[in-house]
Specification:
alpha/beta, 7 strands, globular, binds S-adenosylmethionine
């Protein structure tokens, strides 16, 4: 594992261990690596809900959870996060730790729904927010095909920093991580 992935993994574990959450939401499961990392340090009673839409990854994630003996504590929701976030909100679900790690262009759209799922004191960790350093460049220094995602991620960072509900730190590890606490 490269150093930046190791630092990111450690940050997630440390935050999980410090917060002692009862319910975690992960948006973007992939094959379940981070969900299982969080399982190792979360309290016994904690449950993880994780959302993944890419069909080929779903059976691998399910198998990984099963082999780790964690199928009982992890619920894998299959399909688009957009749909599941609305469903979770309708059911009145609340999560004290949210790990946003899916389609970067959607973070801004998902933020209001995610905030509704977080009680005061909950923490939102968002991954890949610095886009390999591109985010601090002018949009004209960024390749044309990356400009939409670049401007959407800048807007997302602006929202995180200026929403009165949140207190946010940007941490330059990996591709950039933000840690936001809901303060009101
Ligand atoms: C960076 S990977 C997640 C890695 C995982 N969180 C981990 O650390 O082990 C991003 C995942 O988000 C999924 N994804 C992207 N857009 C999504 C969406 N709209 N709904 C659900 N999953 C999505 C992708 O298929 C991909 O597997």
């Amino acid at each position: 594992m490269c150093l930046s992935s190791e630092r990111r993994r450690q940050l997630l574990r440390t935050m999980t261990a410090a917060l002692k959450p009862s319910a975690i939401l992960e948006i973007g499961t992939a094959v379940g690596y981070s969900a299982l990392q969080m399982c190792r340090v979360m309290p016994e009673h904690c449950r993880i809900t994780t959302i993944e839409k890419y069909e080929k990854r779903l059976p691998i994630a399910r198998e990984n959870f099963h082999r780790a003996g964690e199928s009982g504590r992890i619920t894998l929701l299959e399909g688009d996060a957009d749909v599941h976030l609305k469903e979770l909100a309708k059911k009145g679900c609340q999560f004290d730790l949210v790990f946003m790690d899916a389609a970067k262009g959607q973070y801004l759209n998902w933020l209001p729904m995610v905030l509704d799922l977080m009680p005061k004191g909950a923490v939102l960790i968002s991954d890949n927010v610095l886009q390999d350093g591109d985010i601090i460049q002018s949009r004209f220094a960024v390749e044309r095909r990356n400009r939409t995602i670049h401007s959407r991620m800048r807007e997302y960072l602006y929202e995180l920093k200026h929403t009165e509900e949140l207190e946010t730190s940007v941490i330059p590890i990996g591709d950039g991580v933000t840690v936001s606490t809901k303060i009101r």
